[in-house]
Amino acid sequence: MSKDKFLGAVTSEGFGFCSVIFGWDMHDSVYTRELAISNKENGYCDIMASIDLSTFRRIPWENNVPFFLVSFFDPKTSAPICADPRGILRKVVDNAAAHDLECISGVEFEYFNFKETPESVAQKGFTRLQPLTPGMHGYSLLRTQLNQEYFHALFDESLKFGIDIEGHHTETGPGVLETALAYTSAMRIADNAILYKFLAKSVGLKHGVLPSFMAKPWGNLPGCSGHVHVSLKDREGRNAFSLSEADRDHGRANAAFEDTRYLSQLGEHFLAGVLDGLPDVMPMLVPTINGYKRLVGGEAFWAPNAVTYGYDSRAASIRIISPPSVPPSATRLEVRVPGADMNPYFALSAIFQLGMRGITKQLKLTTPPISTYQSYPARKEVISLPRSLEDATNAMMRPDSIAREVFGDDFVDHFGATREHEVRLWNAAVTNWEVERYLELA
Question: What DSSP letter does each residue of 320-343 carry, written as one string?
């Protein structure tokens, strides 16, 4: 954008932007069903893009060109576009602020890396791709000696780009890396998370590497997670999930279970809210067909597929991180359901909005922690999460779904229809597995 156009946009309501970005999918095919925001009838008209000056940063690998994010509004009513990811999260953050609470979060990405380019993977038909490194080498000092320039560039360019990184290392799987983005405000971490994917792919192009945030590229290997850590700050800036000074030595006497003894009552309500609504918001956490393949293995791959929680349990959907394993100030919940293919704005919105619902309704935990089921496998009370995008979308779009309660019909109808489109494409596809299995012997 020219400097003159930029200055004109920031000193006015914004600039016109084609609404088709809300009317087509990730491969620029219009959605199967016409949606309200952008369609043939309204001519895929412009919507208003408002530049958020607070998001200013420079792109270091593009000669430090200035970079800003935008939010989208209806040009006639000035109302936020119901499906704008940043707009959805802004409403959630504002809702928490109205209760004197600030949403704080961190995000971890696991991702495969290949010695490939966009051209080479297309020529190979997306098969027989060469991993950046061979073997299973999580937390390896040795594997980072290979491709050092790329590995260090991811970290260094992130800092220059305003993305603070807490940890950066190899993870289990051929060519897999894990990058943990530093804890900060919910809006900032969502921006950082979506931009880290952009950064990794941009840096990869310069080093002949193609990083992939696909949730489950290989059926016989662990998938790639997008774990989300969340907590709330009160008006004094203290962690609202941590205990008062009086309870810190022995834990909270009125905790629902031993696993929540070092989680505040407010934190327990938040946890109950997330658990209560989790099955109804799954497309916001796992938005792709492939993402549900990551959850098939369940606990075997530390990829939970049920409504479970537990103290410091990586087998549970929600891991409680609290004393005695961390200081009280670090008390938080880790939501382990999302994969690396998540949209961080939608995932964070779902988690915090469900948690705030739990707080306002003072919901109580209705199921015991995961250790109960692991000790007594015959117990049947555990609730499974949807096993496919189709099932998840159907659950979200039910007339009485919790998703409709907390996000409204306009958003659910729009986003749900985009997921229905994805399901239709998948149902019409003929895969290599089907050809190999049935071509000769059927």
Answer: EE-TTSS-GGG-EEEE---BTTS-
The CA distance from 339 to 113, in Å, is 16
* Contact status, residue 224 vs residue 214, Cβ threshold 8 Å: yes
**Rounded to two decimals, what is the model's pTM?**
0.96
Neighbours of 388 (CB within 10 A): 18
Q: Any bridge partners for residue 384, and if so which?
A: 306
Determine how many CB atoms are found less than 10 A away from the CB of residue 373. 20
pLDDT of residue 372: 85
Burial grade of 244 (CB within 10 A; 0-12, 13-18, 19 or more): exposed
Of 135, 233, 158, the closest CA to residue 167 belongs to 158
Helix, strand, coil % over all residues of the chain, rounded to 5: 40, 20, 40
Cα–Cα separations (whole angstroms), residue 6 to 81, 181, 422: 21, 30, 35
- Average pLDDT on 156-183 reads 97
Question: And the tokens for 394?
Answer: 């159907």
Share of the chain above pLDDT 70, in %: 98
The tens digit of pLDDT for each residue in 65-114 reads 999 999 999 999 999 999 999 999 999 999 999 999 999 999 999 999 99
d(CA 142, CA 382): 41
As beta bridge partners, residue 155 has: none
Question: Contact, 363 vs 273, CB < 8 A?
Answer: yes
Residue corresponding to tokens 């320039």: 149
Strands (E), 171-290: 176-185, 210-212, 228-233
Alpha-carbon distance 82 to 74, whole Å? 9
To 10 degrees, what angle do helices 186-206 and 344-360 make? 160
Contact 253, 304 (CB under 8 A): no
pLDDT above 60 for 301: no
How many CB atoms are closer than 10 A to CB 400?
A: 7
DSSP character for 239? B
Render pLDDT for 2-41 as a digit per residue (tens, 0 to 9).
999 999 999 999 999 999 999 999 999 999 999 999 999 9
